[in-house]
Amino acid sequence: MMIPRDAIVSNSDMIKNYKACRDKAERLSKVFIMKNNEPDGVLFSINEYERLSGFVEYAEYLEKNDIAKILEVVPRQGVDESHSIGLIRKDIDQIVAVDIIK
After folding, report:
1. pLDDT value, residue 101
2. Residue 8 — φ and ψ, nearest 5°?
3. Domains and CATH numbers, the chain
4. Quick one: pLDDT at residue 95?
5. What is the pTM (predicted TM-score) of this model?
6. What integer pLDDT is reported at residue 78 of this predicted model?
7. pLDDT 10s digit of each residue in the chain, 102 long?
8. What does the alpha-carbon distance between residue 88 and residue 90 come to, in Å, rounded to a whole number?
9. Which of 7, 17, 43, 44 could form a Cys-Cys staple with 48, CB 3.0–4.6 A?
10. Beta strands per DSSP E along 1-102
11. What is the distance between the terminal CA atoms of the chain, rounded to a whole angstrom?
């Protein structure tokens, strides 16, 4: 996962300067909260949350056949593993494989 340097805040910064972190999230759409130099959380702006929440809610109700249709249009090659669509594809492939085995 590639995290832009300016979108990183420490856990202690978040605790001590929440308003500044919230303002930064509003400006950048999201900030990544680090704890012990590891990603620990993400603070989304409300606009980014609303943009993503519709997709997330829709995805929660997809049937296996619908997921398979989506996978048909998601490229299998040429997607960097660190790119979010590559990670989504990998997760979905694992879920579908488990369901096929059952």
Report:
1. 46
2. -105, 135
3. 5-48 (3.40.1620.10), 62-101 (no CATH)
4. 62
5. 0.59
6. 55
7. 678 889 999 999 999 999 999 999 999 999 999 999 898 999 999 988 888 888 777 777 777 777 777 777 766 665 555 555 566 666 666 666 655 544
8. 5
9. 44
10. 8-10, 30-35, 38-44
11. 31
Chain-centroid distance of CA 54 in Å reads 14
- Residue 41 has which token pair? 């959380």
Q: What is the Cβ-side half-sphere exposure of residue 21, based on CA atoms within 13 angstroms?
A: 19
- Size of the chain in residues: 102
| Two tokens, residue 2 | 């590639």
- Retrieve residue 86's tokens: 């590559």
Give strand ranges (E) for 3-102. Answer: 8-10, 30-35, 38-44
Give yes or no for a contact between 24 and 10, defined as CB atoms under 8 angstroms apart.
no
